[in-house]
Amino acid sequence: MYLSIIARHITVDMYKCKTACFDDMYALQATIKTLLQESNIEILSFASQMMPDDHIAIALLFEEGHITVHAFPDLQYVSADAFLCEEDAAPEQVFSSIKKLFKPEKTKTTILKRGDFGTNTDMKPKTKTKVAPLRRIHNTGSKVVKMLTKSKNDTKNK
Known about the structure:
Distance between the termini: 77 Å
Mean pLDDT: 78
Shape: elongated
CATH architecture of the largest domain: 4-Layer Sandwich
């Protein structure tokens, strides 16, 4: 079986989120966990942590992938991503309920196709070639010749 992609990855930036969402890290984690379970996602493990810069980090791992959420209360900003290891996954559906939770005024969403096994021409590495001006090459060559000639003459005179 030929797969065109093996996973879908979505990143979401949510701006000017409602401040009530940030009141309690454990309540926020429990709410996100409940939202995922309502989406029929079986969570294998989860963790949350208050980071030194006072942002909340939440990670949830499940068989099909993971979701991470970083909430910055002072900025009213949430950065989140979901990686789903299924060709026909729809991570944007998972985030629709999370967006409803934070109620952002503005969002930026990016969807990536991970493991894209497209055509071979898509897989060619990009290379850069740097071409020096001909005069620069000539000048460098002249300097090397003069240096070699001078060192040869110095050894003869000794």
